[in-house]
């Protein structure tokens, strides 16, 4: 769902990155259109989080180029996050001792905008974030990220530690966020079923390389093939 003739929300070309001079992800090229959700799948240690961290600017020197709305993104994470890239890392990105409203204020997000997106948060504005349920904390974290109107949103394991019904609700909200804001979302997921339910397109990573790409709608039917890619077999990958 890329906007007419517009540059993709997020474009990554030839990204090679890692830790302490050792490359962990190699030559990653991907793009995410406006309003599109792209899943990044792979088994533990495949390099998914490293890819997100490198795009966001958390890792030091690396090769390759990251563009948001066609403009190259450079510098450290705090510069990249100024309105252009939102990142939601694994775990709950909220301040547990502050209230829900204070969490939103700190991110300069209007509580009315946040509660329109996530009505569940409305009765919780005065509560400390630490007492919210896991799903509500993720909604708050998402609201803090989305409310800054980034063009590209990077999300690591939204479903982490949540019950399946809560995950499904959150993922359906993610779809509304993509559609209503036009942001391009790159979503790291372990669960094939969750990714199938929300991603327009999916990239499958193994040993730091993107090995296959397929529509989200084909994920379930191609689950065996995906398992083989997870385990290192490359046949059938297309
Ligand atoms: N801070 C770090 N220093 C050195 N190596 C790291 C660091 N973080 C991750 N790695 C290594 O980089 C590789 C890729 O890790 P990464 O966290 O990107 O994988 P992942 O696909 O996100 O896995 P998971 O699904 O388990 O989170 C792994 O071999 C990991 O051990």
Automatic annotation (TrEMBL):
Keyword Cell membrane in record: no
GO BP term, pick one: L-amino acid transport
Entries under InterPro entries matching the protein: AAA+_ATPase, ABC_transporter-like_ATP-bd, ABC_transporter-like_CS, BCAA_Transport_ATP-bd_LivF, P-loop_NTPase
Keywords of the record: Amino-acid transport, ATP-binding, Nucleotide-binding, Transport
GO terms assigned for molecular function: ATP binding; ATP hydrolysis activity; branched-chain amino acid transmembrane transporter activity
SUPFAM superfamilies to which the protein is assigned, alphabetical: P-loop containing nucleoside triphosphate hydrolases (SSF52540)
Annotated ABC transporter domain residues: 10-232
One protein family per Pfam: ABC_tran
Annotated family: Belongs to the ABC transporter superfamily.
Name listed for the protein in its UniProt record: ATP-binding cassette domain-containing protein
